[in-house]
Amino acid sequence: MSNEEKDSDHCQKNVSSETAIVQLGNRKFTDTGSINTPIFLSTTYQHPEFGQSTGYDYTRTKNPTRAVLEEGLALLENGRFGFATSSGMSAILLVLDLFDSGSHIVASRDLYGGSYRYFTDLEKKPKITFSYSESEEQFETLIQEDTVALFVETPTNPLMEEVSIENLAKIAKKHQILLIVDNTFYTPYIQKPLDLGADIVIHSATKYLCGHNDVLAGAVMVKDEKIAEQLEFQLNTTGVVLSPFDSWLVIRGLKTFPLRMERHEANAKEVVAFLKTVKEVKKVFYPGRGGMVSFKINNESAIGIFLNALKVVTFAESLGGVESLITYPTTQTHADIPEKLRIEYGLTNDLLRLSVGIERSSDIIQDLQQAFEKIEN
Known about the structure:
Blueprint: H1 17-22, H2 64-76, E1 81-85, H3 88-96, E2 103-108, H4 113-124, E3 128-133, H5 138-141, E4 147-153, H6 165-174, E5 178-182, H7 187-190, E6 200-203, E7 218-222, H8 225-238, H9 244-254, H10 257-275, E8 281-285, E9 292-297, H11 303-309, E10 314-315, E11 325-327, H12 339-344, E12 351-355, H13 361-376
């Protein structure tokens, strides 16, 4: 947990957040002068004397490596408090544990399949009920007496639809409910929801924050102290914390995060320009920012041929890593959403989702081009 009122050793007021994140953990452990944050694997910590504590007692409650990461997470989103969890889904679980049984949430209609699966399970319990908004304007019309929050992806996964966080924040404040934003796709490099009025920001830190496809992690960031206290209690109670080693991996990833995002976005714009020239592509979904692109192809039956022909871009689930990945949501990330429902809101069986990596853009484009040529033949 990170508090803005504590002067972090690594974060000086006269440096940018980019510089501060590169030096995350530096000068933190002055007894050794270590540049890299150590990995503290100890599960328990000695009390100096009876009735005294170093601030670390048991690693589920607080761990020195995880504490450095959580300072960095709060810094990225201009929050006061950051929490590192064991996965993106555990971050969502942590946040929804704030609400009592019988609560109602209005969520984005186009939604990551894992989130939809969890929301459906909560309704079966029953614990929380959900309504799904298909537009920015519809969110307010779906608010009920028992509504406790708006849950928003912007842009959405995988149709890349945007909503105004500022407008939804005003609606949430008007109805005295919380605004929760999943910022995994855009990341704080592009948008900072807390600055725009959101109450809680969620990330699958597995994706862009870590950026190397080698760790499973989640993140929650907030400004409000009371919400932070509830999250801290739930995190300690449920134990969905990130391990020390995985915390260190995310710290390492964050140090190159701004540089990687620049390349992801620059490459994505070039890939989008290419896709718009391909006759086999009937529609491209790209909001103009970020590294995520979706597109539909004319011949749905040729998807297998296209995917099997790729040599540089890898056919695999997930996103946000340095390597370019392509996903078929119908059978992968969104398989748990009923087909009829998916098709009704536009997630049809001819759609592919591309996470544009940081390879040379010409190599990515050349690979896509030769795969499209296989469809032609």
